[in-house]
Amino acid sequence: MLNSAIVLATIAALVFVPAPAVGQPPGDPDRGTLDGSPLDDLPTHISVLTDFGSRPDWSPDGERLIFIDGAPLGDVLELNVATGETRNLTDSFEHMGFTRAYYLPTGDVLLCGPTSGPRPTDALPEAGRFTGVMSVLLAPFENAPQPLGMPCWEGMATSDVSPRIAWNRSDIDYTDPDLLSRVRDGISEIWTGELHYEDEHVLLENVELVIDRTAVLPIAVLEVQDFRAGTDELIFTAYAYAGGEVMGVDLSTGLVTNYSQSPLYEEVEGIAPNGAWVLVERDLDNAFYPGPLDIWLLPLDGSQAWDRLTHFNRYRGGWYASNPAVNPDGTHFAFQLSIDGDVEGEGRGVLLFDIAASGRPTAPPGPASMTAGGSGCSVRQSPSGGAAWLLVAALLILRLRRPAGSAC
Length: 408
Known about the structure:
With about 400 residues, the protein is mainly beta. It has a single domain, classed as Neuraminidase (6 Propeller), CATH 2.120.10. Helices cover about 10% and strands about 35% of the residues. A hairpin with a 5-residue loop joins strand 22 and strand 23. Helix 1 crosses helix 3. The longest helix is centred in the N-terminal third of the chain and has 15 residues.
């Protein structure tokens, strides 16, 4: 069965994967060549904030971070970046754990987590990961979160300047024994809505479907990342389109743009406050069965001028860098020290990257000179034969069966 899947994936790669970009590095020769861990030899522009946790997100004032203390589910903790003091925001009420947490412009926190079903066990280590529902935890975080009545799947997006949010709707469970059917027949959509505060209650209004998988490829799996400043564009990852692509959808016109245009595995995770560039988890060796990743910077100007920011996967044992989040003034980003394991997204600490100290320009708030979809390459669908989608589904299964920390 595995050999057949590999053959199908190889054929799919020939059909759907674009040629390498000019100047594309040939693989990752230093990967897995060192003993120890990335903490043994950190550059001076990277510092350690915590020795546990995952998926950091910045407060609107840039003074605090929230992060999850477990994987796939955990409590939500808040870190004072200056003092190192942490506090648990979700230990005062009963819950099953949360997979995601994001600050809102109000200082409240948008959450995703299951409210029913099995809890993670040794037999089902990722139980609850794909059955979350959205809620809002109101500051000063003394009461249980208020449910929004909408399911959530993997990442969400919050606007820095408005009550607008975006989320994914999907019934695809990467741990399902029949993943082929799940991917072939499943739902993958991105939605937006606006949070409305009424007295002490939070309501979700103006709910709209933005895009579904057919806008990219009928077998693609979509995951939203962030609103892009200075535009009406929403940035997202399209899995099973080439190796995984960085894309944007113009919320006014529906135009979908491919910014990465690469045959490699790429997953967008952070965005500059001025919308000029994104941070991307990337694998240079294998688009369809990715292992330890590193963080790269990709300008959204269509240049594909990739800039590698971390080299954590040089260390043996599955070490990698993931889940970067840029602070509000564009001078630093927080990210996760990760290690491959039985559970996707397992974190071994939150680190801080000083952009200026690394010799790169910062990205202060305020829109850069850009328009949504003005660069990159608009998406054209591939041939629609049913067998072709099955080939790409086989490709996707190879990529998703192994936890990885997660073209035109």
